[in-house]
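Practice record 12: protein with guanine.
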Amino acid sequence: MELIDGKKISLQLKEEIAQAVAERKEKGLKIPHLAVILVGEDGGSQTYVNMKVKACEFVGFKSTKIDYPVTVSEEELLNKIREFNNDSDVDGLLVQLPLPKHISDEKVIDTIDQSKDVDGFHPISMGKLVAGLPTFLPATPAGIMELLDRYNIETEGKHCVVLGRSHIVGTPMTLLMSRKAKPGNATVTMCHSRTKNIAEITRQADIIIAALGSPEFVKADMVKEGAVVIDVGTTRVKSDQTKSGWKLKGDVAFDEVKDKTSYITPVPGGVGPMTIASLLKNTLMAVEMKGK
Ligand code: GUN
């Protein structure tokens, strides 16, 4: 069994991006600028947004963070998005999800200019992904593809089982693993909450990508000997072993599964750190695509 070290690979990726930014500076090209909007005071979202801003600093990007109280109106938020859309200095723009109930996720995502949609959530970005056209890839699936690539894990002709059908992970993951590319060219089965006999299907998998948000769902008897297991789960559970009182639990029962696998991602330190690195990569791509 080899542990896939997402922390190490994400650092490599960030260093490569920092190098690209330094080269842009030398050539007098534009420094990438990411704008992030946070609504409300959800602890998890605040942490993620702060990590995104810090990562921008690390690679030398400019960043702007806007904090709104949970009571902000939908119109005020949409107007801020339009303002960033029209600001030629801003290359990438994202609104941290989830949003309060009185604000429509759909309207917010639709309002973001697709050329700045570094989350890859805009319907045009999704449509391009389905059509196999170059576009911003959602950060988590892009991070997983990067891990498979950098660990030289063979995917061609393999049976990949994706657990979960979310727009953010399961669906784009299924598309990326099946497309004609490297990594890719896999035969993909997508399972979800209504799938019957999930264990029977996962036992046939050469690669399992677990993204259902159900802690320790994947048990040892669901995994074939030698399989590659990618764990996307990050459920926060109460713990008396950590200072914060919380710990992250993956969708895989790591301790019982690990010895059956050829490669496995830990939680934390596997897929998680890759998502922010992918967001930075998309922001760099946004500025490069403009030829600025
Ligand atoms: N909330 C959880 N993950 C994400 C993400 O990748 N982007 C945004 N905008 N919000 C999120």
